[in-house]
Amino acid sequence: MKFGIIGPSEDEIMPFIEDMSNKKITNLAMLTFHSGTYENVEVVALYCGVCKVNAAIAAQILIDKFNVTHIIVTGVAGAIDKVLKIGDTVISTEIAYHDVDEGILTEYHPWMESVYFKTDSKLLELSRAVIENNQFTQNDYFGKIVTGEAFISESGRTEIISTYNPLCVDMETASIAHVCYANTIPFIAV
Q1: Mutual angle of helices 173-183 and 52-64, in 10-degree steps
Q2: Which CATH superfamily does the domain covering 2-189 fall into?
């Protein structure tokens, strides 16, 4: 088992890199990949930069060059559901693009059954077990995440809620989920 961990910014990924041992750095496609181990598990972590294309490039390189078997997406997201407060944790159950026409993914390659990329059930189960067996100070939520290339205005927020009803929105996760779907790689976003 080998995990890839992707975050859009250095601040979001450095805590993972700092806790790794046996570190090695590889530079590819203007990205810096940090390989090592954490709790005896092989890990490759990097920050990809903001936007869907940067995230997709990073995910595909993790799969092709580093042979990761699972991908974890981590980072800050914008709250859409009013229940969320600063510091809360959202764990994905399913992910969609809010700025891609629904027919693009279902009527053309990759011919999906729905617009949602499903989070791996085993990773979800493990996440639920970790939360149940620990006492974290923040609130933890499981639900939908949507991705698009822009910061969301109030009118955009209303449209996203009526169409997708997600917990939060970001600029990278759906593209990583899309790459994982195409490569049959289990993923989860936190």
Answers
A1: 30
A2: Nucleoside phosphorylase domain (3.40.50.1580)
